[in-house]
Design brief:
Elements: H1 2-11, H2 13-33, E1 36-37, E2 45-52, H3 58-73, E3 79-87, E4 90-97, H4 103-115, E5 124-127, E6 131-144, H5 150-166, E7 171-178, E8 182-188, H6 190-195, H7 200-209, E9 212-221, E10 224-232, H8 237-241, E11 244-248, E12 251-254, H9 255-258, E13 260-265, E14 270-274, E15 277-288, H10 293-311, E16 316-323, H11 324-354, H12 357-364, H13 366-380, E17 385-386, H14 387-391, H15 395-398, H16 400-416, H17 421-450, H18 458-493, H19 504-522, H20 524-542, E18 559-564, H21 571-586, E19 591-599, E20 612-619, H22 631-645, E21 650-654, H23 656-666, E22 672-678, H24 681-696, E23 701-706, E24 712-719, H25 721-726, H26 731-741, E25 746-752, E26 755-763, H27 765-768, H28 771-775, E27 778-780, E28 786-788, H29 789-792, E29 793-800, E30 804-807, E31 810-819, H30 824-838, E32 846-850, H31 852-882, H32 885-892, H33 894-909, H34 915-927, H35 930-944, H36 949-959, H37 961-980, H38 989-1009, H39 1011-1018
Parallel strand pairs: 1-17, 8-26
Antiparallel strand pairs: 2-4, 2-5, 3-4, 3-30, 6-15, 6-16, 7-15, 8-13, 9-10, 11-12, 14-15, 14-19, 18-20, 18-21, 19-20, 22-31, 22-32, 23-31, 24-29, 25-26, 27-28, 30-31
Amino acid sequence: MIASLIDTALRLRWVVLAMLLVLIGAGIWAFQQQPVDAYPDISEQMVQVIAVFPGRAPEEVERLVTIPLENAMLGLPKVEVVRSRTIFGLSLVQMIFHESAEPYWARQRVQENLVNLELPEGVDFELGPLATAYGEIYRYELVSDGRYSPMELRTLNDWVVIRQLMRVQGVAEVANLGGLERQFAVQFTPAELRRYDVTLADIEEAIQQNNASGGGSIIPRGDLSIVVRGRGQIETITDLEHTFIRSVNGSPIYLKDLAEVREDHLPQNGIFSKDDRDDGVSGIVLLRRGENPSQVLERVQQAVAELNESGLPEGVQIVPYYDRSYLVEATLHTVTHSVSAGITLVVLVLILFMGRPAMALLVAATIPFSVLFALVMMYLVDIPIGLLSIGAIDFGILVDGAVIMGESIARRLGASGTRDPREVWKIVRATALDIHWPVFVSMASIMVAFLPLLSLTRIEGLLFRPMALTLLFALTGALLFSLLVVPVIATFLFRRGYQEWVNPVLGWVYPIYGQILYGLLRVRWLVATVAVSGLLLLSATLFPRLGVEFLPYLDEGVIWVRANFPDGTRLEKTSELGRRLREICLEYDEIEFAVVQAGRNDDGTDPFPPSRIEMMIGPKPRSQWKDFKDKHELVAEIGNRFRDEFPTTRFNFTQPIIDSVTEDANGTSANLAVELSGDDLDVLLELAHQTVDLLRSVPGNQDVAIEQEGPQPQLVIVPDRQLCARYNVRIEEVMHLINMAIGGEPVGQVTEGERTFDIVARLDRDARRSPLVIGQLPIHTEDGVPVPLSQVASISVVDGQTIIAREDGRRRITVRCDIFGRDQGGFVAEAQARFAEQILLPPGYRVSWLGMFENLDRAYRHFSVLIPVTVAIIFIALIAAFGSVRAACVLMMPVPFAVASGALALYLRGMHLNVSTGVGFATLFGIAMTDAVLMFKGVSTYRLAGYALDEAIVRGRLDRLRPGLMTALSSIVGLLPASLATDLGSDVQRPLATVIVWGLAGSTLFTLFITPVIYRLFVPPLSEKQ
């Protein structure tokens, strides 16, 4: 079939050229249509339900909201995990769907189950935005020249900036962080209420009855129709002050007479601060799932420019401090440098060996052709252009087939000396038909090595499957170009013949190399024994010394810090401590900005307590650094300063994208999370403390702590049912009084044009802090007699939960631990062994080892199956290709030496085994055999010609030395720049490229000197396929 395709292509040469031009145009067009991003979206398929129950303690929210929501979601199809976190007034329930679930389908299933769900009155719930943990693409600060207060800036952000940015196509949500949300407060004391014999219910009723609008339809007036409007809504603070309450002796009592009416703000959920500014206003722009991040960022930047130019008051500007386009541009620069350097080195190798620029450029043309072919295929199957995928392409591998085809054509044309175009066509055809099988086998073996990578799942699958598909598409394009296009173009390019050029260095090497081979063949048993013994010794020494981790460190350009201050720390105090953290960061010349987010944002997607800080630190460009050689040193120095100054605070240093992704996937962003689950929180807390002590005894631990907040004081008001019945007071009336007077439940709204602001009626600030004053709140019986709240309810201060975490219907407490100076796998293995010996779990309680380690464990189990399957597939393919088990064994021999060489490179460079290196090793399985396949072809030719076995081996090896060295060196130098790169965006490519480059170097040496000896020992039988 392949032979007939080649024959058809050479007979329809102009058709092939026309199709080539069409592909070039289609590839360029596909590139313009596809989204480009630094990394693929590796976040889980998740749907969130955000439920707000204002003023309720975590225990009440869990019982009345979280558990019913969880129960409704547990039976959803394709749901893998149901996870929840409950804090004061907020419940966040997360459903992790299987990655095959379509996002809109998953949201529809959740929405359907919410329709018939009955929740208490006052609960507002909604689905989280159609975004992912990867979707935070833009962060900004609203900066003023001092003329605007935090409340005014927050109002501008809510009603101007966010509304404008939400209109941008591709934006899922814009979340506010910081500032003071404006409202109107009616504040009173119990004494004033008693003085005027007024209850809170009277005030609520008066505000609602005096805040209304009406419509009187239309009345005729001559030839006109006039619309009748009634405008009685409250529009100013004066309107609110003059709300009529009741008459006393004919004199009206207004709201201002018995309460203070003022502009106020809601209690803050979070405080934003940056550099030397303490209380700022920020916004976080979330990308809608599936959108093109580069295009959306361009539209966001344009909308921000328009707002800064004419959409905001004078003295107010939107200033971005995090823009994902920087990561894309920096990664693009790194990848472009590595790719261009790799392509340049490949072309130089081709020219060095082939001598003639025309033939070298023809072979090198495989690279743009295969990339364009890959772009077309990526467009057809809807794979975004990931710079990770493009940067991981070894352009030297792509030219392997073209090198074999081009070198054979050049050698035979040069040997013939013909200048007749018809003879050239015949020689090219005969060469292509003769050499097509080694070309196909060498390229197909590489492609087969990538096929099992398509079975990767979860984060590692989302990260590396697009890369594997991109490489498969590129290799397919390279194979088609080598078999069909190179022969066609050669008939045009060398229609007047080809004068072969042999590198003089190779001419000097040939006889020396031949004598070395003869010598090795004479002592073949000794050579084989030494080689195998060296391999076993190297493997036994290296692999136990290599550390294990899930992914290499991914540098996203900024530093992300999570800090947990002591339990119960007030939000204002947390922000004050955050100021000191910013000051420490700005002491370093390498730091450009420092941002602190205390508490949580206002959209409810991050249910963090007031004692929690998230911090973004922005380093300056690396060229401006003075005292630190890399980011690891800088992070270590800042971390030591933080821990020295705040010894009781837990710090975790990471990157914003990977932090969000791992937290959504595993419920925590820690390297290691020990999850304890059961029913009783007190028992779980005791087990958690034991686990903390245990982890702190394992070498390599850092920042070991319980992730959930501990108990905090709660003012608990419990109605006495018998006393309520005696005074004719309903429980609902007591709870309503608590919600309004203390919790600030809205009783109406003030309308200012398009903007509306809540009205709350509650005790003044000082009164709300005193249980004694709260107990004096009057509540009317059915007879209209006022009774103090303390007369019908008990009021006490007790400890309660701050945050309650659950997973799959069970409460859980997580102990987090970062690992420093040690590989993840070794640390966890030791910790698990100690846990099994020292901690006894009660019946019904269980432990799970999660975090990045869970991903590592899953990836390890996957690769333990994946690698043997890959080897088996390649082995079976070789048997089918060469018709002999012994031939397949000989061809597979370079693979273990390639693996050992790659492991040696990792050890010498201080790298760990991870998913990236695993992909590199899988790639090696296919590449390492290319030269051996060529040798087989050459040796078989001379054996069939009747040469003695030793002479056939030496002649066949020498005959294929040049193409073998060309393919090996071009593959090595193609990824050499990526293996040495250290700039932003090189983190995933570097370990992968290191394994391939140095593993291929080892396998090349093995194929040059050891494979001929192994061939002599096995003596594979000849077959028609060989």
